[in-house]
Amino acid sequence: MSNFYIILTGSLVAMSCGILGCFLILRKMAMVGDAISHAVLPGIVLAFLWSGSRDSLTMLIGAGTLGILTTFLIEFLTHKGKLQSDASIGVTFTWLFALGVILISAFAGQVDLDQECVLYGEIALVPLDTIILASGTDIGPYAIYLLGAVFLMVVLFVSLSFNQLKITSFDPQYAISLGISATFWNYLLMSFVSFTTVASFESVGAILVVAFLIAPAATAYLLTHDLKKMIIIACLIGILSAVGGHYLAMSINGSIAGAMASVAGILFGIAFVYVKLTSKKVAKLTSGVAVST
Amino acid sequence: MWENIQYFFSFQDTNILYVSLGTIILGSSAAVVGSFTFLRKRALIGDAIAHAILPGICIAFLLSGTKNYVFLILGAFISGWISIILVDYISKNSKIKEDTAIGLILSVFFGFGILLLTYIQQSGNAAQTGLDSFLFGKAASMVLQDVIVFSVISILLIITVTLFYKELQLISFDEAFAQSMGLPVKGLVFMLSSLTVLAVVTGIQAVGVVLMAALLITPTAAAKYWSGYLPRILLLAAVIGGFSGFSGAFISYIAPNMPTGPWVVMVLSAIAFISILFAPRKGIVAKWLKQIHHRHRIQDENIIKTFFQIAEEEESFGEPKTIALIREKRYYSYKLIRRILKRLKRHGYLVENKAGYYLTPFGQRKAARLVKLHRLWELYLTEYLRIAPDHVHEDADTIEHLITPELEKRLEEKLGYPAVDPHNSKIPYE
Questions:
Q1: Right CATH number for B364-415 from 2.30.30.30, 3.40.50.2300, 1.10.3720.10, 1.10.60.10?
Q2: Is A138 left (phi over 0), alpha (psi -120 to 50) or beta?
Q3: Residue B218 contacts A where some CB pair is shorter than 8 Å
Q4: Which of A114, B69, B279, B290 sits between 20 and 30 A of A40, alpha carbons compared?
C-alpha cells in the first residue's frame, strides 16, 4: 500500500505541475516558475510561525502571497528598475530564499522544517502521516488529500479559463484588445504555481518541484503543437516519471524525489533524440523533393 | 556583544581570519566573473551550473572513494561543463527556449545529484560526511586549506580576466563584432564558461547551491546603477561581493546560530535594492524625480503661455487674469492650476492681487519666447517639411518645451525672422 501512496503522491504533484508547466513554458516563464518555487520559502516559514502548525490553509495563503510578491518584484525590477529580466529573476529569488533560510535558523525551535526538507523533501514519509477518523478507521495519507485537492483546483482552473490562459500565453497584445487582462491572468497563474509548490513542498522539496514543472511540459512541448495534447502528454509523462522514479529509488535505496526527477530527465532525453531523428528524416525527404523538382 | 565585535576585528583568532579572508576572496572573484555572464545576458546560466555540479561531485566521490578536493573539484568541473553544453545544445537544436533549457537541466541534474547523494549517505561509507557542505555551504567552518585552495583559484580567475579583458569585453557587448574582427569567439566563450564553472565550484562551498546565483548576479546588478564604464563596474562589483562576503562572516560570528551564506546574500540584496532605488541618475527615485521635474516644467510653461494667449486675444497685456479665465483656455483641474500658479509666483513669473494674476516683465518675456518658439516651429514644419498648417499645432506644443537657445537662433535665421506663423498669428520678438 505504501508503494501505491508514494506513486500516487508523485503522480499528483507531477500532474498539477505538468499542467501549469505547459503554460509557463509557452509564456517563456520557466525560470519565473523556478524563482517562485524558491521564493515561497519565507511565506511557508511565516505561515508556520503564524499558525503554529502545518495548517494547510495558512500555508497556501502565505505561499500565494509570496508568489504574487515574487512576480511583482520581478516585473518591478525589470520594467521600473530597467534591470535585464534574467538578472531580476536571479536577484529576487535568491534574496527571498536567503530570507527563508534565515527565518528557519532564527526560529529553529518553533519551525519544524530543515534545509534538507526544503531542498528535496521526503516523499517516503508520506504514507506514515495518515488521517484517522473519529471512528478509528484509517482513510489514507494526509498528503494525498491535500495534493488531490490542489490537483482538482488546478484542473478546474485550467479548464474553466482555458481560453483566457491560451490567448494571454500566445498573444498578450491580442488578448488586451479583446479586453482580457494579461496581467490579471499572469498573476492568477503564478498564484496557482505557488499553491502547487507549497502543497508539494513537504513531499518533493523546492527544487524538485521545478523538475516537475519544467521537464514533463518541455517533453510534451517537443512532441506536439496542440496545447490540449501537450497538457495531456505532460500529465502522462509526469505519471511515468513518478512510477519509474519510485522503482529506481527502491532499487538503489536513494531519494525518491531525486529519482523521479532523474527519470523525468531521461524521458526528456528520449523524446529529444526521437524528435531529432524523425525531423532529420523529414528534412532529408523534403530536401530530396526540392532537388528532384 | 561589543566584546565579541572587538574580538572579531582584532583577528587574533586565526579561524576568524581564514573565514573572513575566504569569504572576501570568494565574493569578489565570483562577482568579477559573474559580471561578464551578466553582460552577455546569460545571468541564470550560473544558477544552472551551481545545481548541476552536484552529480559530478557525487560521481567523483563514488569513483575515488575519498573526499580529496582535487577529485571533487574535477568532478564538479566536468558536470558543470556538461550542463552548459546541454543547455546550449537543447536550445539550439529544438524549439525549446533557453530559459526552459536552463530550468530543465538545473532541476534534472540536481535531482540526479540528490539521488546519488542519498545513495552515498545510505551506503554507510564513513568518508561521506561533509559532502552535503556543497548543498548548503560551510563558510563558517573554513580552514586554512580551504582558504589556500580558494585563493589559488580566485587569483587564477582574476589574472585570466585581466589578461583577456579586452576580448571578454568585446564578446560581452557585441559578439558579432568580435567575430568580424577575427577574434576566436568560440574559444573565448569556452574560456569564460570555464571561468564561470570554476567560480561556481569554489563559491558554492561558501553559500551553497541555491544561493550561488546571487554571488554571480547581484553584485553586477548593483554596480550597474552607479556607472556605465566597465572597469568601474567590475571594480565596484568586486568590492560589493567582497564586502558582502565579509559581512556574512561577521554576522554569523556575532549571532552564532545564523547561517553565513544566506546573510551574505541578504547583504548583497540590500546593496542591490538600495542601488536600484537610490543610485543617482540611474536609480528609480532619481528617474522619478526627473520625470516630476519635467512634468512641472511643461505645466508651468503651458500656463505662462496661456496668459500670453489670453492677453493677445483681448489685447489686455498687463491686466490681471482670473483662474476661471485661464481654465477656459487650458482645462486643468482647479487644484492643479492653484499649485502651478503658486510655483510660478515663487519663481517670479507672476504676481497676484485682488483682481487675479498677472505676468511680471520677466514672466512676459518668458511667455513671448514660448509663443515665438511654438509659432516658429509651426512655420518650419509647414515650410520645410510641407506639413499642412492644421496638422502642426500638436507637434509644436511638445517641442516648444525642448528647444534650446542655439536651436532657437538657427530657426530664426533659417526662416529669416518671419513676422507671422502659418495661421497668420504675429510672432512676438523681444
A1: 1.10.60.10
A2: beta
A3: yes
A4: B279
CA distance A137 to chain B (A): 34
The verdict on residue A149 lying in a domain is yes
The secondary structure of B357-388 as a DSSP string is EEE-HHHHHHHHHHHHHHHHHHHHHHHHS---
ipTM of the complex: 0.90
Q: Which CATH number fits domain B286-359: 2.30.30, 1.20.120, 1.10.10, 1.10.3470?
A: 1.10.10
The answer to whether residue A166 is domain-embedded is: yes
Which residues on A lie below 8 Å from B47 (Cβ)? Answer: 90
Residue of B nearest to A78 (CA): B276
B338 contact A CB<8A: no
Cross-chain Cβ contact A208/B116 below 8 Å: no
- Alpha helix (H) residue ranges in B224-283: 230-254, 260-278
How many folded domains does chain A comprise?
Answer: 1
Residue by residue, pLDDT tens for chain A (293 residues) are 678 888 998 999 999 999 999 999 999 999 998 899 888 888 888 888 887 766 677 878 888 888 889 999 999 999 999 999 999 999 999 999 999 989 988 887 777 676 666 666 777 777 777 777 777 777 778 888 888 999 999 999 999 999 999 999 888 888 888 888 888 999 999 889 988 888 887 777 776 789 999 999 999 999 999 999 999 999 999 999 999 999 999 998 888 889 999 999 999 999 999 998 988 766 666 655 544 44
Q: Which domain holds residue A190?
A: 2-207
- Distances in whole angstroms, Cα of residue B157 to Cα of each of B20, B29, B31, B130, B153: 19, 7, 11, 26, 6
Min CA distance, B297 vs chain A (Å)? 23
